[in-house]
Amino acid sequence: MSRLVDRFSRSMSYLRLSVTDRCDMRCLYCMPEEGEPHETRDEILTFEEIRRLVRILCRLGITHIRVTGGEPLVRRDLPVLIGMLSGIDGEIGGQTELSLTTNASRLAPIAEELKTAGLNRINISIDSLDPDTFCRITRGGRLSDVLAGIERALDAGLTPVKLNTVVMRGINDDELPDLVRFAMARGVTHRFLEVMPLGSVGLENRAGFIPAAEIRKIIEKRYPLEPLPFHYGSTAQDFRIAGTEAQIGIISPVSERFCSSCNRLRLTARGRLQLCLAYEDGVDLKKPLREGWSDDAISDLILKTAYQKPAGNHFAEDPEPVYQIAMSGIGG
Fold first, then answer.
1. Cα–Cα nearest to 258, from 234, 229, 276
2. Which pLDDT does position 219 carry in this prediction?
3. Taking the model in full, what pTM does it have?
């Protein structure tokens, strides 16, 4: 069977699978305060439809599936879907890694259930260690819930656990060394992300943007960093904290783009296969799925679409970077 390759000879093996547009937080860099329009039940893919499309994509070369949202744990019975996805390997003879990105507000009660269902590892967003700052960034989130989720994820063996922080000038940039120390104390990797100009909050985020080089300098005021080799397909430049085995990562989609080695596709909760965060192109897979297309016909459509993947984003070139599609609608 043909494999997922684009016109720039990049092979695609990583799928970001959004299961809902909804979220129980309203983070400053992701959504407007009033939120985004919610999907209806008919608009989003059923678990059976998700499983079928994922199975097709795995046969085409996807080996890593990251479940996202919105907030994926808002989707009812998510462990059931995880179990359905984890069973695909046995059918096609594959070896697929299944991971999850979450704000962890609802994680603690079901961390063990997710692990039992077949989830391999987890990334958790935590943008501040100060309860008031955390509440401000998330517009109402409770830091205590996230901290409990981190501990339960570690207890359940959803490792390696990685923590993600979106860095914003004047809001949480003074906390970066403390966040590194927090991760080191728990034996996990912390990754720091440039804020991205996506959705209706794009212009609002522009003043808070801090480039990767400056993020590194802030951290190095306390922790000397040693660069590690860059891995093809990675979004992060990894560093070892000098004199330790601890690592951090810095993700720079704007100032130091990693597009030339991008191996990602995105499947939205509404069934749209998207090729890049910065573009609203792609193809609707829900319609042919519900019209009764065969797996082979859907495979051909996916292959033709993936071949057109753009060379890269244009965040750095756009002087007023406002992209209408919201982060919560494309799985981040």
1. 234
2. 98
3. 0.92
